[in-house]
Specification:
heterodimer, A: alpha+beta, FAD/NAD(P)-binding domain, about 20% strand, B: mainly alpha, 8 helices, about 55% helix, about 0% strand, globular
């Protein structure tokens, strides 16, 4: 039986897709929202420290599953199949809400320079570093809309580096933890500008949901009291409440359907019973995250697009990057752990830009609570990896460390990319993503510099010992994956225009971090949300088609 | 090449996968007599992994890996999420015993503690895949959630002075200063 034609079919119910569903449905368009994962709820928190979305040694908490969703990784060791619960898979999530269901919920606005990296720093050898076709001022009203409609807490009044904002955040920050109280005066003594970092997290009742209860099971888990904010508990329910949006979960998109002239007519997908459907629509919105969105475009073949939809100039899947997270760990001679979640609370933007000789930098903040098994990663390199000495260190240091880390803005590389594998297919027979590439050496240079700054902050705070972690030069992806469908004015060097519309097919949009030209020195969620609000506004202004209700 | 047979319906396929794995574990268990208390290991394998785990995380004033039931965690997971590493364990234990025999004339479990440490240092250098797996799994079984079969009586969480009850609700929050 043919499915009823709709105005828009959206692939992926994450940050971008969730906002698009709500904006379009509220404007009177009929919408089908396809999500490959399930709709989890607060009751799915489970507090399982070995089986969640960050510690995945026993599997991903919120998808996808290892059994049906392989990828191929190409690195120095050669080529091999990798599974979603392995870090090299570069997983984000597969569920309603996408990454926003289980993230830490930091809600950053990028800075003005983050949209003008090429103009600010010039060409970087080997990198495709470029300016965005839009600036901070284009996004500012939509940052505000995301902050107020979804709900952001924090207080950045002491952040002298922030870009101008018209309105303050709607909610105050959480009361400071012991870590916060140790780090705040130290940062001030160093002449830095510490402040309460912004989070998509209720600190007072907001939008009919309660406030954070400050448990230790935050990032990677479902929020047990529904105080952390994602698209799953805000815009997606709002979209459904309009009566114009239908959410179909456990539906896996195979390809975008095109007519003879190359215009999109809908999406072919497998439902929960593995039945193939064709959902016809006036508009196709691709919101699957940087790797899966690129994969869907590349798996869409047509006489006019033999190398994949929107890929005439070979830019789809290119410039895959995320963030490089340098860290410093400090050991103190007193307890710094007070069992108050979520952990991350104090940040500085002193090193996002203006670092001598470096093209950018990153925000620094303290890390989320480390559960006991996660603490294994905080043990310094000089402590033996096993035996009595290791156990002694863990026992003595567990409550006495502070970790400071930050997302260093990466220099995109043309050769770091997601392709579709010519041989390996997933459970549904769809060619899987094939990932390859590295980090740019300059990104690592910046990371080493930023780690030094984190280290200095910890020393000033009284750490008796410190050590640093610099990530390996391997491909970045994971939760912050970005860049694979670059936004730009020139169709030859980008995939979508500034309205997030494919240059080559005007009724297909890509709306997620794929379109990010660069990814800021910040967690990207709020920017994805704001850009979706902006893209929806522009789409609706241009919309000439029918509406179910207006 | 199609990944794991897309023609089979999902439920059927999952059930098939489980029974095949179970059959595989039974068939490949060298000392299977129908009465082992372990899901995957033979008694000797379990003793060996337990001895390894106790060297990696020894008992002192606080319980070690043996008391915390780490081998139980590994045994359970080898029939679940760790299925793909069954062969690495089976072969790794054989190699460890062989190396112990060559160097000390006995199987690993029969060695005195100091020689076990030495044998493990050799494994760390020469039997990397097996050693790294066991180390990671021991840490998980010792420091991870008891629901998965290790960390008996929350031994490690007590050692780390984690506030109890570990699955608390909001009462802790109620002691904190009010926001705003």
């Amino acid at each position: 039986m043919a499915l009823k034609h709709v105005n828009a079919v959206i692939v992926g119910a994450g940050a971008g897709g969730g906002v698009m569903a709500k904006e379009l449905a509220a404007a009177g368009l009929s919408v089908v929202l396809l999500e490959r994962g399930k709709w989890y709820s607060a009751a799915d928190c489970r507090k399982d420290d070995l089986h969640n979305q960050r510690t995945t040694v026993l599997g991903n908490g919120f998808g996808p599953d290892d059994e049906r969703n392989p990828r191929v990784l190409v690195d120095q060791q050669g080529e091999r199949i990798v599974y979603p619960s392995e870090s090299t898979y570069s997983n984000n999530a597969a569920c309603v809400g996408g990454g926003t269901f289980s993230y830490g919920a930091q809600a950053w606005r990028f800075l003005e320079k983050d949209f003008r990296m090429r103009s600010t720093y010039g060409a970087i050898a080997g990198s495709t570093l470029e300016d965005w076709p839009i600036g901070y001022s284009d996004l500012e009203p939509y940052y505000e809309k995301a902050e107020w409609e979804m709900g952001v807490s924090g207080d950045d009044s002491n952040n002298i580096f922030k870009a101008p904002r018209r309105k303050n955040l709607p909610m105050p920050p959480l009361a400071p933890t012991r870590e916060h109280q140790v780090l705040l005066p130290a940062a001030k003594r160093l002449g830095l500008h510490p402040f309460d970092l912004p989070m998509l997290r209720n600190t007072v009742p907001y939008n009919g949901r309660r406030s954070c209860m400050r448990c230790r099971w935050c990032v990677g888990f479902a929020c047990e009291v529904n105080a952390r904010t994602g698209t799953h508990n805000t815009v997606i329910p709002a979209a459904l409440a309009t009566g114009n949006c239908e959410l179909r979960t456990e539906c896996v998109a195979r390809e975008i359907l095109l007519d003879d002239s190359g215009r999109a007519t809908g999406v072919a997908y497998f439902d929960v019973h593995d039945r193939l459907h064709e959902q016809s629509a006036d508009l196709v919105l691709v919101c699957g995250g940087a790797i899966e969105s690129a994969r869907l475009l590349l798996n869409t073949r047509h006489r006019l697009f033999p190398n994949g939809l929107g890929n005439r100039y070979d830019w789809v899947g290119r410039n895959l990057h995320a963030h490089t997270y340098p860290a410093a760990v400090g050991l103190f001679d007193h307890d710094t752990y007070d069992d108050l979640g979520p952990g991350a609370s104090i940040a500085i933007c002193d090193y996002n830009h203006g670092n001598p000789g470096l093209a950018g930098g990153g925000m620094l903040a303290n890390e989320f609570i480390r559960l006991p098994y996660q603490f294994m990663n905080q043990v310094p390199p000089w402590v033996p990896r096993w035996g009595q000495a290791h156990k002694d260190f863990v026992r003595n240091a567990y409550k006495r460390t502070i970790v400071i880390m930050g997302p260093v803005q990466e220099m995109p590389l043309f050769e770091s990319r997601a392709q579709v594998d010519p041989k390996v297919k997933d459970y549904w027979g769809i060619p899987v993503a094939r990932l390859s590439g590295t980090k740019h050496p300059h990104t690592l240079e910046i990371a080493r510099y930023i780690a030094g700054k984190a280290d200095a902050w910890l020393k000033e705070a009284g750490a008796v010992q410190t050590w640093r972690r610099i990530p390996p030069p391997t491909l970045s992806g994971g939760q912050h994956q970005a860049g694979t469908c670059r936004m730009g004015n020139d169709p030859k060097t980008s995939v979508v225009n500034k309205d997030c519309q494919l240059h080559q097919v005007d009724n297909v949009y890509v709306i997620d971090a794929s379109v990010h030209v660069t990814n800021g020195g910040f967690n990207p969620a709020l920017t994805i949300l704001a850009n979706a609000y902006r893209a929806a506004d522009n789409l609706l202004t241009a919309w000439k088609g029918s509406k179910v209700r207006s | 090449m199609t990944f794991k047979g897309r023609t089979i319906r999902r439920r059927t396929w999952l059930a098939t996968g489980l029974s095949v794995a179970a059959a595989g574990a039974i068939a490949s268990s060298p000392q299977w007599k129908g009465a082992s208390r372990w899901r995957f290991f033979s008694d000797h394998e379990a003793q060996t992994v337990e001895a390894i785990s106790e060297q990696l995380i020894p008992a002192d004033g606080d319980p070690g890996a043996r008391d915390a039931g780490v081998v139980n965690y590994i045994d359970i997971q080898l029939t679940r999420h760790f299925k793909r590493w069954q062969a690495v364990y089976r072969q790794g234990i054989v190699s460890l015993d062989a190396a112990s025999r060559v160097k000390f004339g006995k199987r690993f479990v029969e060695l005195p503690s100091g020689q076990q440490v030495e044998a493990l240092r050799d494994a760390e250098a020469h039997s990397k895949e097996f050693f790294e797996l066991v180390l990671a799994h021991c840490r998980q079984g010792f420091y991870g959630d008891p629901r998965h079969g290790g960390n008996r009586n929350m031994a490690s969480w007590k050692m780390l002075r984690l506030p109890s009850p570990p699955l608390r609700g909001r009462m802790h929050y109620d002691d904190q200063p009010k926001v705003g």
